[in-house]
Amino acid sequence: MKLLSTHLCTLATDHHPSVNVLFAFAAGFTVANLYYNHPILNLLAADFNVRYEQVAQIPTVMQAGYAAGLLFLCPLGDLLPRRPFVCGLVGFTATLWLGLCLTSDLGTFTAISFIVAVTTVTPQLMLPLVGDLAPPSRRAAALSIVVSGLMLGVLVARVLSGTISNFVTWRAVYWMAFALQYVIFVLLWLFMPDYPATNPGMNYFRILLDIVKMLFRHPVLVQACLAGLFCSAPFTSFWTTLTFLLADDPYNYSSLTIGLFGLIGIAGMLISPIYARTVTDRFVPHFSVLFGLTCSLLGVCLGTYTGTFTVAGPVLQALLMDFGNQTAQIANRSSIYSVEPKRRNGVNTAFMVATFCGQLIGTAAGNHIYAAAGWIGSGSASVGFISAAILVIIARGPWEEKWVGWRGGWSMIKKDKDSADGKTADKEMHGRIVPRDEEVGVDANEKVLQEVAAEEGHESPLRDENDGKESRKEGEVRETKV
């Protein structure tokens, strides 16, 4: 454990927002591992000397591996200290990735792809940590930075892979990814905050069972999971079927141009952190979820019913849908991370499994419907998915404590501006309910770190600093008396 610790690890995102940027970079280029192969499947088929149908299983296998990691590895984030756990997974992924760069056998390539996909879930371990470290009043803004990096990784992977393989061999893409994984490992080893486990004595199988029980205890979690499922399906359906639309009449774009089309979606994602900072943190999450879904619905309608005769339709769809999807996801995370602070990894697992199921449904439904009814058919299905998500959110108001209804009022303004969900009276840090700073006279984050240090039997790194502050205050009092 100590080998994975440096003096820089004591930094917290509350005092050093740059750590959120580090997490965004790490999340983006880690999740990119799942998507490098998408634009180069034809090159893989030629290099391995197999049919296209055989290499088409690689993305499916990697999605299955990622789902397994979400279900079985992410809950360990509540049981183990996350810093050594995340660094270990990144180091393992980077080392095993070397096999993908060197192997010339499709079976070996597919097997290694599955394993690295399982351990690529580290971004989903970082997000709950961001929820732990960030003050509740700024949680949405902190999450928006990391989620933006995560979503950008999905698009940037396709752009980089398509561009690089267009000029050099596809293996150059994988060598680049290999180097990036070790860069991420070193950066996380140096700068990732060292935060204690939230449930170190809990049984692993009990954690898995508790994830299911959470769905029966917290209506807001079920609401977020259903909304996440329905709004993620159009996202994958759009980016899957867009290739078919742009490659055929009337556009006939090259693969390089289609790959660069992903840059349009990046613009929409870059707006989300600004929105989260200025709007999401000031209103209840319910407002931003509805606003994000409305933007997505508008974008899908424009792209679906104008995309067959003008490229402006898909461009607007990419901008509005990516922005709306990310805004809704950030607001949902901000809301659900308040339900059980000591089990945020379990909460995140439930949300991500639902979201991932939506992505699988979107990919499968988009391909089948496009084959049968074309671009308008698949787009109309996306309109239905987003409409279902809006109905789920409308069915339960922001102040409702039960499963359905709007008891508590229609107001979208936070009753408690210092909380993440707008209604929790106290701040949550490290799974505890910590009184407000003004009532205690000491920074909440520092107090919790002192408590954790006392439990672990060593001095808090902030103790000397606090003692110095107290000594200065005592001196000022004595000076005043004189």
TrEMBL record:
Q: Which residues form the Major facilitator superfamily (MFS) profile domain?
A: 16-396
GO molecular function terms attached to this record: transmembrane transporter activity
Q: Which SUPFAM superfamilies match?
A: MFS general substrate transporter (SSF103473)
Q: Has UniProt tagged this entry with the keyword Transmembrane?
A: yes
How does this chain sit within the bilayer? Multi-pass membrane protein
**Major localisation:** membrane
Annotated region described as Disordered, given as residue ranges: 452-482
Q: Which UniProt keywords apply?
A: Membrane, Transmembrane, Transmembrane helix
What InterPro entries does the record tag this protein with? MFS, MFS_dom, MFS_trans_sf
Q: According to its UniProt record, where is this protein located?
A: Membrane
Any Pfam family hit: MFS_1
Query: What parts of the sequence cross the membrane?
Result: 20-36, 56-76, 83-100, 106-129, 141-160, 172-192, 220-247, 253-275, 287-312, 369-394
Statement: the UniProt record of this protein carries the keyword DNA repair: no
* Classification via CDD domains: MFS_NepI_like
Q: Which GO terms describe its cellular component?
A: membrane
Q: What's the protein name?
A: Major facilitator superfamily (MFS) profile domain-containing protein
